[in-house]
Amino acid sequence: MSKIGVFICHCGENISATVDVERVAREIGGMEGVAHAIDYKYMCSDPGQTFIKEAVKKYGLDGVVVGACSPRMHEPTFRRACAEAGLNPYLCEMANLREHCSWVHEKSEETTEKAIDLVKMLVEKVKKNKPLDSIKVPVTKKALVIGGGIAGIQASLDIANTGHKVILVERDPSIGGHMSQLSETFPTLDCSQCILTPRMVEVAQHPNIKLYTYAELESLEGFIGNFKAKIRLKAKSVNYSTCTGCGACIQKCPVKKIPSEFNAGLGTRTAIYVPFPQAVPNKPVIDRVNCNYYKRGACKICEKTCQVGSIEWDKEDEIITEEVGAVVLATGFDVKGTDFFPEYGYGQYKDVLTGLQFERLASASGPTFGEIRRPSDGAVPKKIVFIACAGSRDPAKGIPYCSKICCMYTAKHAMLYQHKVHDGESTVFYMDIRAGGKNYEEFVRRAIEEDTVNYVRGRVARVYEKNGKLIVKGVDTLLGGEQVEIEADMVVLATAGVANCGSEQLAQKLHVSYDPYHFFAEAHPKLKPVETNTAGIYLAGACQAPKDIPETVGMASGAAVKVAALFSNDELVREPVVAVVNRLAPPLYSTCVGCFMCETACPYNAIEHEEIKGRDGSLIRNSARVNQGLCQGCGTCVAFCRSKSIDIQGYTNEQVYAEVMSLLND
Amino acid sequence: MKKLRERAAELLSQGVVSLVLGYEEGTKRPRPLFCRNSVNAEKLIFDSRCIHNLAVYITKKELVGKERFAVTAPISTLRSIMQLFVENQLNEEKLLVLTVDLNGELREFTTFDEIAAYVAQFELKRGEREQELLSKIEGMTREERWKFWMEEMSHCFKCYACRSACPLCYCSKCVVEVNRPQWINPWPAPLANMEWHINRAMHMVGRCTACGACGDACPIGIPIDLITRKMMEDMAPEFGYIPGQPAKQGNALSTWKLDDREQFIR
Fold first, then answer.
1. Which of A192, A230, A246, A572 falls 20 to 30 Å from A66 in CA-CA distance?
2. Which residues contact A100 (CB under 8 A, 6 or more apart)?
């Protein structure tokens, strides 16, 4: 007969205030197969654990039930205690008397009876428990970083510097991301490219980093420590091993009027192009959508220009497979365009810009070489209006959240404008100023006090064009709702930061969850900000929510540490809660008949085919087998197996049946 | 029929197959014939009275994996064979399927696709008996239906002839024989009978091809084939399946695809 020990915890008063714990221990103590039952104030404390250890030895217990809190926190604690006393840890189970009982019910007789039932179920289950061993799976010590912005760059460098290999995949022809587009950075006003480009070069030259630009993740299979990533290398049409990056082809390309993505549409580029002069790698790709040859079958001027014959017209997309142990998602964000705002002209007015476009105007590498000029006529604007919270914090626009970076960059924009246009007049319309961060508030005060930027608290209802001027109609809510009308030469919208396009599809490929705005979801909002719900996949930067550069870099380093910690082990230890297909003595070998319905039901591709063969090598039967590395223990296969040939270890049909029957047989 | 006999004799004498599974005249109706030599092939018959589903034999361990054999199959048997292919129970290299088409021509199949192409010409229709009973049952309220089936099932004495006759009940250990835990009470009693029949029905969802063998086999004439048949008719269109046309796309209840047609769930 079983010798089960039952330990009922008061959890301070959390359980004992509503449950008569002494009665629970007393009644359970009288159950068949229970050798020992006690209650104690804090079972998880050192003396509490000692009670368990001593009872295991004294009574020779072959099973332990702890009636306490949710197993999420303390199951490992109690299992460890049992293991230290020499009992297989998987013979210890927890009954959740706190979340499932005391916290959700009033103090009453019935509450205590429910607690007794919960413990009774677990006692019946533990009687059927079998000793299990944890599963060890090897770790591939190579990381995949998706996205080559500052988040991806930082994460890659940090991982690579711990001595592990990194594969960095970037969708665009160059790494750098949004940070490379910025002019100067708050709150110190140092030049964005000056601090970023050395890092980009470091990535390209790092012996541990393999960089794939103009590439996208095709699919990801596998599990923590053992992912298999398929990466699509989009055809660049240029052979990078021979190309010298001289740029002659770019000079000669006749298609010159393509809006430049790097310049946020303010400048133009050619069909064969390098996104910006400091690009890494500094070699061109051909944009096949706009190239004359791919469109009409004739041109090939770049080929004639190229001294080394690097143009590859027939090059096709290539798909490579890489085995990696961890993935860092650093795919960044996007900003809404001006066309999102009917009240500000649907993007029809040339001199209504997004913050990102203003960055390009203010940048030395931009289309105006750093001079603030109107896109419409090239004139220097004498009056400029900045509108913060364009889209953000506006549930009516479907963006109820704060984009977080706009307050700061709007202050920076106004400051840069005042520095560049000395007789200019700048006005910022804002809802609130959110300048939480080191030296941030001081920075905004500097804009207001030293650079005389006119801050108006209120929203802008409309912007329209009249006689070459942009009429900005707003309200000053600090002065009793007074109407404000400004004849501006330029309007800059601090448009909302939104999830990058394709983030939803990417999340589905990776099986990571995302929020209603398609930003990737962290595993815990406070304690697991860089983890996702999928083990082995981590988050860095603005793909999780809009954030500024310091925060992004910090998060990227955080994700890198998680990866490094994972890679510090040669093997991962996993709970043995996985499915197993039974194996029996001949002549049956297994009750599995190999219909493989479980294979079609398994969401993790964990079902494999096994040929059971006789001594003479003849096939006896085809049976299913579970890959314990892939199995997540969800139990879908168990529900599906007609002949009940699959069971989840630790949650077998027999165990769960015993739990249910303990309630029905009262 | 003459062509079938000739071909069977040829296959056996040439050693292409070691067994032809077919029908011969019985006392009241045709019965299965295990034909192992060309002389016996003379006894083979094939006509509309041959309804015994021979697919039930082709998963037996005495036949599987050893020599190649042939089976004569009317449409309903072909459907069962297709489903058995879907469930990975058959080996194309070891099986030859013979049938006689509407023009009296002998047809031979070796692969799932060949059978599928042939079967696709035939729509699965309700027979007179099925139509009559099903429309009666469909007209009942939920409570009346439950009462009807409880009454029918109360006569069952668990001989499991339905299970033996079904070509898709090929498990080496049936759920009724699993006793750790004992899912289904083994004795015949109204509730215990219902446990078995509900289990049987659930195990057939998305698999039954409506051959009717279970109903034919029932010694006390419970129309149990109608349960699985009706479930198939109801389920197939919802999941984009054609009734009686098994497809290698996974079981309706076990698979989920992004472009699933099951709008009724969303």
1. A572
2. A70, A118
